Amino acid sequence: MIEARDLCKKFSQTHALKNLSCRIPDGCVYGLVGSNGAGKSTFLRLIADVYRPSSGEVLIDGQPVSDNPAVKSRVAFVPDDIYFLPRASLDRMAKLYASVYPNFSYKRYAELVKLFCLNRTSSLAAFSKGMRRQAATLLALACSTDYVLFDETFDGLDPVVRNTVKNLLYEEVCSRNKTVIVTSHSLRELEDTCDQLALLHNGRIVFESDISNLKTAMFKIQVAFAEDFDRTKFEGIEIKSFGKKGSVASIIVKGDRDAVSARIKAMNPLLFEILPLSLEEVFVYEMDALGYSSNIVLG
Amino acid sequence: MKKASPVFHAKYFRETFLRLKTAGIVSAAILLFMVLINALTAFGSFFSLVSGGSNTTLTLFIGNAHTYILIAGMLLTFIAFEWMNRRSSCDVYFALPMTRTQMYCSSILAVILWLAIGIAASSAVFALFGGGRINLLFFALIIISLLLAVLIVVGVTAIAASLTGIRFAGIVTALVILYVPYMLFTLFDLLVVIEANGMIPFGDTLGILTDGSYNIVAGGASILPLSPSGEGYADGWALLYNFAWGLVFLGLGLLLFNRRNAEAAGMPMTSKWVHIAVRCCIGLPPLLILAFIEALTRETLAGISVTFIGFSFITYCLYELITVKKFKKMLTALPWYGICIAVFIAFCALPAKVADAELDRDTSADNIKGYSIQAAADESTSLILPIAELAGLNFGTYVDTYVPVITDLTDSCNTYTDAYIKEVLFTSDEGIRILSDAIERNKTGNDGSIDVVSVFVRIRRETGRTIERIVSLTQQDVDRLAEIWGNDTNYMEAAARIPPMPDVQSDDEDFTEIVEFMLDELNDMPLEQRYAAVVNCLNFYSFYPAQDHAVTSVSDLKGYYDMLCYGGQCGVEIATFTIRGSDGYRSYSFSLKIKPEFLPKTAQRYMEWCNSHSSELDHQLLLISNACKGLASEAECPFMLKIGFVNENGERVDMRYTVEKLLYTYSYISYHEYGPQDGNINSAHPFSDDVMVELIERLSSSPLSTDPNSYVMVYTGTMPPAFFALSGEDMEWLLDQLKGLEVIAS
Question: For chain B, which residues make up each domain, given as ranges?
């Protein structure tokens, strides 16, 4: 299990992470979403020990990550900006990783190279952006680590490869009991991929939840009454957003669906309908509630 | 299961070593090529024995290796840590499962191994092709010193790489750390020397901080274009000192690497204060040069000041602009330029204060217990002669060109006796008073026309403390001091010490045998005779004008006369033999002129050897004859006549005639005579070709001489000289001819 305790990271005058605390259980795909500059990549770099925390610590199974080779050998990191050695081929990079990751599997490496149909001897500099990301992904998976961190996982991948990567991640989690942490701006991708999701904003985790809970815990209702009404009519219900057109109100509600439904039905509405929300809508409404413009978030 | 080392990661070391392969091989190959070329170029001269007396191949080897260490050391270290300058590569490397310490140490060792391979390969090439005569102990010490330079360069570069986030700033920071402190210390010390009218020896104020051998990279590289400091490589303490600094730099590099933040990639400097310091160091050199000029001229020159300050300011701004890349950001750095100005003011004001404080120390005769004569640290001909030649003083031409040399190490001018002479404490009241008075006189500023020579002394005061001074002396002081030193038994014993025959392989066993014979002759002499022989025959290179450098012994003083009047009581030598050897960790040279008057047996042995090469005699005389016949033309014909005999009154007479042809003017003989006539004559004569041709004819019909008391030596500089025993009639004819020449200059 990965545990972050009061994690702070400061860059000059900017606080990238502010007292972030969370626990990421083993054997799941954990998604990190958040606005630009929310601290997603910083958090991953702290887990990978690329960055040193300004305060707080990251633990893996109770052991600190910082400068701890035993723990770091259980973590593979695929950053958003992929780097390979100058003029290196895939095989050369595999050699580098194999020399430092004790569980690097050449067998798995060969399988993945075949799966992605990449040339293992030609220079990586000649690869396209998507191919470079495939190469980085397969190298990370070949390291056979318990934790794999992907920053902007699907950036530059075509739909086919994207599905392949998704399937790979499922396989890693299901059959190898790995923990995969992914960050992405593509909420639809995460919706399909993740078991758990955390929303970061201004260096803090605003909420974290199972995907299924997240989607059921927030929903949209459309309701109309014979008499005129406003937001105060629904006191006691956690409303994230309230809008009214004519006599019909559209309300984003967070809470237990059955309890809310029973309560509104008791008010004898002329119209009452519950609609599910997409993950993207959940994200937008949560961010709206935090005063963050949805245009920027989804930009 | 084998436990992993906490400081070393073998596989990452191998990875880094492979990553540096291209740069490592190319740089080592360039060094090998340079060493090979230099070694092969000099190869021929090793067989000839006609040598200038310096082991130029070793000098070149050290120079090449130093340059290699500096350039390749920085290059390889920067490549090893280049990834720290990019965020994307930081994401890969810092995430690798190893400690920062393992990563640093493995990378550093990979760099050092590449450099060591380069040095080892070039040393082997040098030893095979260019170093047939090198002393293995010294060669090992040189290699050790080069490896220490590796530690320093790699350590400093690692520090710079950890402190900076862009390549340019890294290179500049490394150079600043390597060179600026030594430059500042050296300049400060020089300014103190200038302010003290040259009375305080260079290095006395800041000690080892300004000593090239203790600053193996900065100091070594700065003097290498002229000559490596042979002493530097032989000083065990200096090696330890440099080793300690190497470890400090590497340790500091480790500390900074461990504290390095990945987010510093792309930033000019990780620390604001280090950035300010480096920036100021970039702006400082022009200001320091200005401080030096003002100290030399002792006035403020407005035009020059504005130029240098402007240049400094532009350099400062330019560096900042290149590193921060934004004009606005550069503007914020301008107030810090004040630090440069503050340092400049300090360099203008402080040296005078330090010099005054040092000169204020009590050196009155009552407070002096005794004094000793000190050899300066870097008395190197190659350092001094170019300066002398620049000043129009062409001293080098008087050195006999036919110098059989048994070369051992480097071009060090410390004579064998220097180490012993400097231990002798002179306590005579008169000598102390002369020195004390001279010091007081010097303080008020020297008049070059009065003070003729400088003496480097270490004064031991009654309190037990010692101070060092370079004291300028008048002719009268010199004469008296030479007499006092010459009557001091301890000094005589020290000065007359004869070195052992060095264990070297000579290409010509004849010369080895003659040198051994010479040492035996000296050792068989009683002390007084040996002392007289050494003092009068010692060959050295201290051709220093008064106040430019200090003499260190009576031999120096004799040499000073030799330089000044080219005559006096020094006699005429027929050859010069130089021994270079090692005495523990100290290298030395012992160069003796073979003067028949002082070393008759060796002279005779040498004449016999020359006569054994008489098969070349006819050819040589023919050459001289032909050359002399051509004197009317523009052909040059430099040759030398040396005549030595005992006259009818039993007095020894030695004469030297140097025949030269001056282009487009006239031929002349410069004439020097030594003997009872007390002749210190340096004259030029119009020269008659007919006389010379007849002389050659008379010589051709004369037998060869092996008598040091009666000979005429003819020498062109290209072959062994010929010694002739002229009959009484021929000798009389020759002397008549010589005396009859018209003196046109003296």
Answer: 10-46+54-168+211-266, 365-600, 613-739
